[in-house]
Every structure is written in structure tokens, then in C-alpha cells.
Amino acid sequence: MEGRTALVTGASRGIGAAVAVALDRAGARVALTARDRDRLDRVAALLTHNPVVLEADLGEPAAPGRLAEAALAAMGRVDVLVNNAALAVRAPTVELDAAVIDRLLAVNVRAPLLLIAALIPSMVAQGRGSIVNLSSVSAVVGTPRRAAYAATKGAVDAATRSLARELGPAGIRVNSVAPGVVDTDLWARNKEVAGVFEGIEAQTALGRWAQPDDIADVVVFLASDAARFVTGETLCADGGLARTLDLYAGPV
After folding, report:
1. What's the total number of domains in the chain?
2. Which of 125, 188, 217, 239 could be stapled to 206 by a disulfide with Cβ–Cβ 3.0 to 4.6 Å?
3. Helix (H, G, I), strand (E, B), or coil: what is residue 176?
């Protein structure tokens, strides 16, 4: 990845922060974006290749276009785009309302598509590019109480396949990574529920929760020339969870 540039959304914590660090370690110059400037600055302090910090709320319709312009202005080019920023909601479907669904769609589907659209001309002009979208095991198998979230991640995977066909002739690869359960702040509260930690371990073939680095290394692989003939794929980085998940465990 030496000499390459990368834009990582949702880079202030969790998987996004780990991806930024891993890309930097591989030699790329990274632009980090999220809503929390303080958190972004702390992640940027770990990087060594002149990182760029760009605040953005990708739930706003105009934010992806502005972010693309800012990244190109700061770095001159974007070789790699990692669409990691996302919202997650876990609730019975009867409790969903239009506002919740619209917010999920705005951040998880609309934002990555608009950001990709804004960066396509520059990637086409340079004759290459790699786009990695973060999906979820929820898009691969049924996960109760996550219907709206799963729908957005299924949309991401469908878009990945379509974009791979559309952009392949221009030398642009598009892939998705579908993590399982990752030990991040977002799962901290759920881990405290009796039996959750052990239950996830028991249903994961490798017998442990994923760490952010486990996902970040897969993203770097797909972003790099090591995956130069891989496009249109959704790669499950879930420790085998999607193959062993007991969908009927616990209350509906």
C-alpha cells in the first residue's frame, strides 16, 4: 500500500479506527472521517504517513459530496475508499418507525452510494481504485430483531455486486466485508448481559469474539494488490458464525 491514499469513514473508533491504523501500517496515507473530532485526532496521532482528519456527518444528504471534495483537495487522489460508517438498531420489528428506518438507510446505504458516486470520476481518471464496503453477518443469515439493519447491509452487498460489474472496466474493484460479532464499544453493553459473551463464543466456529484488527486485516487485503483479481465479493470475516449460528437460541 506504499504511496497509496485511503479514505476511511467511521474511523474514530472500533473497526474504522483499526482499519485506519492497518492501512497506515501497510504504507498508505489515510484520511479519517467521523463526527467526533476529538476521537479522530486520537486515532490520527497513531498514524505515521501524514494523516488527514475530516469531520463529517454522513447522515446529511450533502455530506458525502463535500467529504469527497475535501479528501481529494487534501490528498490529491483517493486510491482506496472504505465505507465503514454505519448505524445499528436492535429492536423488535413492531417497535420500528419511519424515522428509525430512514436514519439507517441514510447512513448505511445512501451515504456510501453518494460517496462512491462522488469519487468515481477521479478513480476512473487515474485508471484504478479499490472500494471496500463494510457489511454484516446480518446480511448473510437471519438475525432476529435486526430486520431494518439487516436490510441496509443486504443493500450494501447488492450494490457491491452491481458496482463491481459497472466499474470493473475502469479498473475499479468493489468488495464487501461482512464481520460477525466484534468486540467493540458498540457491543460493550450487550456483553454485560448474562450468557451473551459465552453464547457468541459457543456459536462461533473459532470459539472467540472478533477483535477490530481481525476485520481490519481483511479490509487491507481487499484494498491491496494482493486481491487484484477479486471484485464483487462479500467476504465473511466472522470466525464461522454465519455457518454455525443457531437462529432459534433465545427469545424472539
Report:
1. 1
2. 239
3. strand
Q: How far apart are CA 228 and CA 222, in angstroms?
A: 8
**Per-residue pLDDT of the chain in tens (252 residues, 90 and over written 9):** 999 999 999 999 999 999 999 999 999 999 999 999 999 999 999 999 999 999 999 999 999 999 999 999 999 999 999 999 999 888 899 999 999 999 999 999 999 999 999 999 999 999 999 999 999 998 988 878 889 999 999 999 999 999 999 999 999 999 999 998 888 876 666 676 777 777 778 788 888 888 999 999 999 999 999 999 999 999 999 888 877 655 444 443
Q: Residue 46's domain is classified under what CATH number?
A: 3.40.50.720
Q: Work out the angle at residue 239's Cα, subtended by the Cα atoms of residues 234 and 241, and round it to the nearest 5 degrees.
A: 80
Q: Active-site residue among 63, 79, 149, 160?
A: 149
DSSP state, residue 182: B
> What angle do the packed helices 37-44 and 14-25 form, to 10 degrees?
30
Measured distance CA(238)–CA(241) in Å, rounded = 5
Is 40 inside any structural domain? yes
Residue 250 domain-assigned (yes or no) = no
248 in active site? no
- Which DSSP symbol is given to 132? E
**76, exposed or middle or buried, with CB in 10 Å at 0-12, 13-18, 19+?**
exposed
Q: Is residue 64 situated within a structural domain? A: yes
pTM of the model: 0.92
Distance of alpha carbon 204 from alpha carbon 218, whole angstroms:
18
* Cα–Cα distance, 161 to 138 (Å, whole number): 17
Is 15 inside any structural domain? yes
